[in-house]
């Protein structure tokens, strides 16, 4: 029981939900530090992993026609990898290739699909990275089947990408070659990550841009060289992709923006799902990135700061926003749920309400509320009245009033009641405020650590927030605690 208390402490609640899209550079790095360090693979290992570089394993955009093909592979330890195989003449000097690969391999971030190794036997030059199982941004934006990407998720992609570029820049790797919607991949949790393959040129002295020249930075057309500012220009084209759900040439987009027709840019599938202010701000950021003069473009750090303030639904996990099903670990034996547990798993709020009304305040017995004679004042009477009014509103299903009254009682501070926290928690759930509800369920557990109701309600809140695995774990703890309680 102690483990559950510490795992779902209020600190966890604030860091997990409030800060889910607010990570410092050092936090971003931590995400990659569990990964193995950069290493060298043998050609035999990579042949075995990719089934002999089978065409069935190709995952790159242009298949076998691409100058550098990417394969999906599986190592002996069942770890999935992405293997990029360069054209035989791309890196004639193996030492130069290894040096460049090692430099990229030193990067470790939650925002990158990290490079974990390379191979340079004979004429072969191969890079090995973490495999991202949930397709590319291009697939989710341009070729979606079930649902268009949600506005909140598009804003998250923009932020995470800016954070990835800022992280790389802080590590002295500011150049990224041919940044486009195919370079952004989604991991198993549905979080967007920037492919580390773009940190290396396609060859020692080859072209950096393989896409249509209409999308390349103006200075690249003049000099053939990529600069830090060129990467920001490409970031601007990606903001246009996110806004429009299409790949629009920057010149056309800028004409629309200058003509104050920016709403013409917006993806029609998003109609009614974003505020004009947010759209205007994203258009403003895109047009700053697409300035003809490189020196007038913002840097990645300032872009990340601007995008942070636009984030929506920060507490909702990416896989929920993306509609990606999560694998749940099979339970060793089926959990025998109580009626309360069943109601929480189904998120049947009406059934939970009936159970809470039936329990009443009997579980508050034994909670220390030592009150000196002096405390029996008008304030005390007001506090008790606010609880009474809250209970009346709760029974009448007037949940907004119940929240107000219970808040007055809690803020009064003269008495502590886990049941009041439980009732306000359900009132928050009834009014579609699951984050606030989870805070109350946790407070109820702090006040009364051996109370199964607090854990059941936490599970309902976590289900409501789309945090399926955590909800199942908490539900199991609540069920076990109730069984233990019934034995005694």
TrEMBL record:
Catalyzed reactions: L-seryl-[protein] + ATP = O-phospho-L-seryl-[protein] + ADP + H(+); L-threonyl-[protein] + ATP = O-phospho-L-threonyl-[protein] + ADP + H(+)
Gene3D superfamilies from the UniProt entry: Phosphorylase Kinase, domain 1, Tetratricopeptide repeat domain, Transferase(Phosphotransferase) domain 1
Localization per Swiss-Prot or TrEMBL: Cell membrane
CC annotations in GO: plasma membrane
Organism domain of life: Eukaryota
Primary localisation category: membrane
Keyword Nucleotide-binding: yes
Enzyme Commission code: 2.7.11.1
Membrane topology summary: Lipid-anchor
Listed GO MF terms: ATP binding; protein serine/threonine kinase activity
Record's keyword annotation contains ATP-binding: yes
Domain Protein kinase: residue ranges: 56-322
Keywords, alphabetical: ATP-binding, Brassinosteroid signaling pathway, Cell membrane, Kinase, Lipoprotein, Membrane, Myristate, Nucleotide-binding, Serine/threonine-protein kinase, Transferase
One Gene Ontology biological process: brassinosteroid mediated signaling pathway
Stated family: Belongs to the protein kinase superfamily. Ser/Thr protein kinase family.
Identification of the protein by name: non-specific serine/threonine protein kinase
Species this chain originates from: Acer negundo
């Amino acid at each position: 029981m102690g483990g559950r208390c510490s795992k779902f402490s209020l600190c966890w609640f604030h860091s997990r939900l409030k800060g889910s899209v607010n990570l410092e550079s050092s936090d971003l790095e931590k995400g990659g530090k569990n990964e193995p360090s950069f290493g060298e693979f043998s050609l035999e290992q990579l042949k075995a992993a990719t089934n002999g570089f089978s065409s069935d394993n190709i995952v790159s955009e242009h298949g076998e026609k691409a100058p550098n093909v990417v394969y999906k592979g599986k190592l002996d330890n069942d770890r999935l990898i992405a293997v990029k195989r360069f054209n035989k003449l791309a890196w004639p000097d193996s030492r130069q290739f290894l040096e460049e690969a090692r430099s990229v391999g030193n990067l470790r971030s939650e925002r990158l699909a990290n490079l974990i190794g390379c191979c340079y036997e004979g004429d072969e030059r191969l890079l090995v990275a973490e495999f991202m199982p949930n397709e590319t941004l291009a697939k989710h934006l341009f070729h979606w089947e079930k649902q268009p990407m949600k506005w909140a998720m598009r804003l998250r992609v923009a932020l995470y990408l800016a954070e990835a570029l800022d992280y790389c820049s802080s590590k002295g790797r500011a150049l990224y070659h041919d940044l486009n919607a195919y370079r952004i991949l989604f991991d198993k949790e549905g979080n967007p990550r920037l492919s580390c393959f773009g940190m290396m040129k396609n060859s020692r002295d080859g072209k950096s841009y393989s896409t249509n020249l209409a999308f390349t930075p103006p200075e690249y057309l003049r000099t053939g060289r990529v600069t830090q500012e060129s990467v920001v220009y490409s970031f601007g084209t990606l903001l246009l992709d996110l806004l429009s759900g299409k790949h629009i040439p920057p010149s056309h987009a800028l004409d629309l923006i200058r003509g104050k027709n920016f709403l013409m840019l917006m993806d029609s599938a998003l109609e009614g799902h974003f505020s004009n202010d947010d759209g205007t701000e994203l258009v403003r950021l895109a047009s700053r990135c697409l300035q003809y003069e490189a020196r007038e473009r913002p840097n990645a750090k300032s872009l990340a700061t601007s995008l942070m303030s636009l984030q929506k639904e920060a507490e909702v996990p990416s896989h929920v926003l993306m509609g990606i099903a999560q694998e749940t670990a099979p339970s060793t034996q089926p959990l025998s749920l109580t009626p309360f547990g069943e109601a929480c798993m189904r998120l049947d709020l009406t059934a939970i309400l009936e159970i809470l009304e039936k329990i009443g305040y009997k579980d508050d017995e034994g909670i220390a509320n030592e009150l000196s004679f002096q405390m029996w004042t008008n304030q005390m009477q007001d506090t008790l009245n606010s609880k009474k009014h809250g209970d009346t509103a709760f029974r009448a299903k007037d949940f907004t009033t119940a929240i107000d009254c219970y808040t007055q009682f809690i803020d009064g501070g003269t008495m502590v009641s886990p049941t009041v926290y439980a009732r306000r928690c359900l009132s928050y759930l009834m009014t579609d405020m699951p984050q606030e509800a989870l805070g109350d369920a946790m407070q109820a557990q702090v006040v009364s650590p051996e109370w199964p109701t607090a854990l059941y309600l936490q599970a309902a809140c976590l289900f409501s927030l789309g945090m399926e695995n955590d909800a199942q774990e908490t539900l199991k703890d609540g069920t076990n605690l109730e069984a233990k309680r019934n034995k005694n």
